[in-house]
Amino acid sequence: MMGDSILNLVRNHATQTPGAPCLSFETETLNYGDMYQRCRRVAQALAQQGVKAGDRVAILARNSPAQYELLFGCGIIGAILLPVNWRLAPREVADILADAEPSLLIIEGDFRDLLAEAEMPIETMDLHADYPAWREAASAEAPEQPITPDTPALMLYTSGTTGRPRGAVLSHRNLSYMNRMAGELWDFPADGVNLVAMPLFHIGGIGYGLSAFGRGGHTVLMQQVIPVDIVEAIRQHRVTHGFFVPTVIQMLMEVPGVAEMNMSSLKCMLYGGAPIGEAVLKRAMEMFRCGFIHCYGMTETAGTVITLVPEDHDPGGPRAHRLRSCGLPMPWAELALINPETGEAVSTGDVGEIRIRSAVNMLGYWNKPEETAKTITSDGWLCTGDAAYQDADGYVYIHDRFKDMIVSGGENIYPTEIENALFEHPGVAQVAVIGVAHQRWGETPKAFVVAREGARLSEAELIQFTRDRLAHYKCPTSVAFVAALPVNGAGKILKKEMRNPFWLKDNV
To answer: What is the model's pTM?
Structure first.
């Protein structure tokens, strides 16, 4: 069978070690043989449902084995899985469904209210009431469709700079690299146990979760992030590896009694998705006493493309300065730092935009050729929008972002989304949103509002106004009312100036 297929991640071990534990969720553990049979039944059931190669199958639900059954089942027939973020507002969910036009939506009953603004008719299936019987009624003899490395397998939506959702389309080849990453860089053994707690609508959840499958290891899947349950799962299942965003690592350290718990099974804790404070990282290293790996990447690169290995986590040694680095590019990823204004490469030590050329780069954005062309150059370089510099040894240090994206608790938030929502309020004349430091979440959105003449606005009113239109994690946690926003001669708002403490002091 062809190597660049995600099907091989589970199929090979279903043949070689069918009785080995594959996936544990709550009180159930599936071995590789059982898991592969489920995936084949799902494939057959989808085909009987009329799902064809290239069709999208959406799931709106918290983490469950169904996401992986559907991912592999879709892979067998050449369909595309679309996990939808259940933290979004109904309007945002409606936009995604309208853009993707899925043939089938599998939904957890709790989230049916999120379909309130979906105007298109979508065939739905309840995850708990209908899905298990639907799957088990199908034969495990599903006919496989011809799959190439570039066959789309997964679509994950991100917000663009305009605030409109964009579906990043990832191929079998993109996702199959997770196996190589786990073996070559994370030292994941065949008897390893991988904990997956991050949401499966993120690449750091569903993509990272593939790492154990390819190694023949055991995946422990959490329904959602509950720190005390994660700590208990590590202890109970003797977890060896896990990926967490920095805020979750902080939460784990706050679990009562965690310092006294036996976590000797942990070999490696991977982290990324947002900046981490050096003090937090050092404390975590002391508490968990395992290797740490920093992962830099994005949905559009199918996850990690730059990594800082455990040997470079050396707080008291000669490499202590590398704790501020995100590491070195993966062997299969070319990196360039480019001045976005000139298109020229910058010198060592100078700041440029991170660009990546790799086999893990996405195929493109769904139905958005212009957005794709802005992100991926004609010669295959993906423009990340992140600003960084390299030292003489090639280590990459994130400096800032050329784009205005805010990273709060590992979630990407584009200020434009918030600004567009606030502009709908009749009392708002001008608005600009920036990210400000937050002790727990790293960053949080702050809105600066110029009120219309005669309007009487309050911070609480505007925050609630955005909550009625956006996912709560995207909403500003504070609003400042100002007489004017700083602009240049062309009238463009100068957000760089707004981040200046002196401007904040004089205007807020």
So the answer is: 0.84
